[in-house]
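User: Let's play a game. I give you a shape written as tokens, and you guess the letters that built it. Ready? Here's round one.
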């Protein structure tokens, strides 16, 4: 019982971190139709910016400043790069963001080196939150869950209950009409892309010290983000939320299990399971769990 409860909480907290990371990619795709291969690199930038800011003025200012910096970089990328290649179609956009990911990786190597940096959990959040039988559950995991849920509620309220949210959704389907009403559609798309990058940066701030901040962190989570987006349904925020929790729990439980399967332990095949789930879902339900839009 203790094992199940601890692993379930760990799976949920990891899944919520994955959702925080994949939500920005889902929003950018659903509202702009752009599949951003550099999204995980923005996550890495958020972690490194948070490390740099926290060493000078503390973690709490970094929690605000780092996502803003990453969002600003995202807006510059959209304004001076992505917007230029947009007219050449989706293939050009994919190639552009693919190359951008490599540029960001090399910039991180040049500035911070190739070794992990000492980005730690702040002392205020370092300690047990409660006990499950004999296991202490850390405060920081609860903090990760709280920030993820707050972000989900904020995105939903912003898109459905505010004027700017309605303008953003209308600009995707009826851009000419929205522009005729006096709204600057290119600026709206720039803000959306910057917002998606900022969400990835926020995930980096939260996840960078919970795991490790090093140059390979983007490559380690990048494939999982796309698995979540595909499993949840391209462009579906609710689908991404469900898929994140599903894959978070799947990986957490499978890594901890030693049950034999076809001569191997479950923990040995754990890294493959999310991709197996994606392949099976694409065969039997190509639109994903809650997808309504074609890629």
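Assistant: Ready! My guess for every position:
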């Amino acid at each position: 019982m203790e094992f199940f409860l601890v692993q379930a909480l760990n799976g949920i907290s990891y899944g919520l971190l994955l959702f925080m990371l994949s939500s920005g990619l889902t929003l950018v795709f659903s509202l702009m139709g752009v599949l951003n291969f550099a999204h995980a690199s923005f996550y890495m930038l958020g972690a490194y910016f948070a490390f740099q800011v926290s060493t000078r003025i503390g973690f709490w200012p970094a929690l605000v400043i780092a996502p803003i910096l990453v969002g600003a970089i995202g807006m510059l990328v959209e304004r001076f790069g992505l917007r230029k290649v947009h007219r050449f179609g989706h293939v050009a956009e994919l190639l552009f963001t693919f190359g951008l990911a490599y540029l960001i990786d090399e910039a991180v190597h040049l500035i911070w080196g190739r070794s992990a940096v000492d980005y730690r959990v702040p002392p205020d959040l370092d300690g047990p939150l409660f006990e499950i039988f004999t296991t202490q559950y850390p405060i920081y995991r609860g903090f990760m869950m709280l920030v993820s849920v707050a972000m989900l509620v904020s995105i939903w309220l912003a898109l459905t209950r505010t004027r700017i949210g309605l303008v953003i959704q209308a600009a995707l389907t009826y851009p000419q009409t929205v522009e005729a009403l006096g709204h600057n559609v290119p600026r709206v798309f720039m803000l959306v892309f910057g917002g998606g990058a900022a969400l990835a940066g926020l995930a980096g701030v939260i996840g960078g010290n919970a795991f490790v901040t090093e140059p390979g962190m983007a490559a380690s989570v990048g494939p999982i983000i796309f698995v979540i987006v595909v499993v949840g349904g391209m462009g579906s925020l609710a689908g991404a939320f469900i898929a994140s929790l599903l894959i978070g729990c799947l990986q957490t439980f499978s890594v901890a299990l030693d049950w034999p399967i076809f001569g191997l332990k479950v923990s040995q095949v754990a890294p493959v399971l999310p991709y197996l789930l994606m392949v099976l879902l694409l065969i039997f339900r190509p639109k994903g769990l809650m997808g309504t839009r074609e890629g």
